[in-house]
Amino acid sequence: MTILLETQYCPPIQTFAAIAKADLLLIEQYENYQKGAYRNRCHIATANGLLVLSIPLAKGKNQQTPIREVEMDLKTAWPQQHWKTINLAYRSAPFFDHYGPKLAPFWLENEETRLFDFNQKLLRQFVKLLKLETELGLSSDFRQNGDPGVLNLCHTILPKNNGTSELEPTIKYGQVFEDRQGFLPELSVLDLLFCCGPQAKGVLME
Fold first, then answer.
1. Residue 171: which H helix or E strand, with range?
2. Which of 13, 148, 154, 195 gives 20 to 30 Å between its CA and that of 175?
3. Which of 166, 161, 154, 155 is nearest to 186 (CA)?
4. Which distant-in-sequence residues (6+ apart) come within 8 Å of 203 by Cβ?
5. Which residues pair with 49 in a beta bridge?
6. What sign has the CA pseudo-torsion 120, 33, 187, 93?
7. Whole-angstrom Cα distance, residue 99 to residue 89?
8. Rounded to an integer, what distance in angstroms lies between the CA atom of residue 166 and that of residue 157?
9. The whole model's pTM is what?
10. Domain locations in the chain?
11. Nearest to residue 133, comparing CAs of 22, 28, 26?
């Protein structure tokens, strides 16, 4: 099965549930940037509840900018701030010490200026850490309605509905702060990795 998705920053678990079952993942590279999605933000769990991490954009905030031209605002220290927040949130997670050092350089040593390229680097690392067999590729043209043989999942997994969709039921697993605030659905894949480690792939495949 081939699926098509828009670029996402540290995608939600719902996205990876679809990726894990696909033979080929195509990322849409010809769309225009759209607000209100996971393209430049992700959700993580903290001691105080759900927190949104948002990448500030320097160029490409309007809806007409091609997604590959959207630039991140690197005048601020947001990469370091994001990693510091992730560190504080998950340092007590069972597998943070294992996966944290493999992910930290993507923020602390970032050399990318464009959102799409940054997201792609992280995506490849997540697929590697999860040991998924899914092949990664890019769209060859703009598939607004999807091509035959391609399951178009663009715009189906959105923050406004907590990442859930009709594609899969909510995935549950043990979370760091679940005893304080209950289970938070469809957080970033970061949460699944740090909490479940090698069992993360099995959770996605269930």
1. none
2. 154
3. 161
4. 171, 173, 192, 196
5. 46
6. positive
7. 14
8. 9
9. 0.91
10. 2-205
11. 22
